[in-house]
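Much of what follows relies on a compact textual record of a protein's fold. A complete example follows; check for yourself that the lines match position by position.
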Amino acid sequence: MATHNTTSSATPISSAPQKLRLRWRVVDIAVASVIGVASALIYWVAAIATYAPWGVLEAILPGLAGIVNGLWLFAGPLAAVIIRKPGAALYAEVVAGVLEALLGNQWGGIGTLIIALAQGAGAELAFACFKYRKWNLPTMLLSGALAGVGSWAYSFLTNLQAVDVASSYGIVYLVTSVISGMLIAGVAMWYLFTAIARTGALDQFSSGREQRAKALKRINNK
């Protein structure tokens, strides 16, 4: 992605609502793939960095470790809010999951692919609920939350470890996963997106031009 601080006359900035376009461009695929690759590296590092803290959190309260799950949920929401095409969240999350598995982790290839599909589907569902026409912080929060639900669902469907009535493990793990998804995949990714967009790096996307227009409007109104 090329970064530039001035707006080319060939790429007008407009805050007007954009018509939903279903067809993916080459740049859409390229950027979604880059997000997936970069996220995979972060996911892989996060798996190593949180190995010990995970055990500590579980010792404090079973299920509390879900609070770090957001570190594996952000590829989908970020790709979706930038590209604004159906399937972007699912695609980016699956790419990240596949590459993370290839790098090697404790969940193995099949397990990582399944959880990536679950998390990506959850992230995608939030935008689909609004027919891919709501691209704001509340929708990002919902996307992060549903990605967290997807992460929890993987544990439940694969080995039932997310549900333990006696210790309330399943409830705690669900709540912490959702909160983590909202904060990291939702709030943090929204502000990362807006910060990148304001530099002009995303002017090839309607999402980037929209954020630039809003930023210029605020500057002009001062």
In short: The two ends are 30 Å apart (CA to CA). Residues 169-198 form the longest helix (30 residues). Confidence is low (pLDDT under 50) at residues 1-17. Helices lie at 26-49, 51-60, 75-83, 88-103, 108-129, 137-159, 169-198, 206-221.
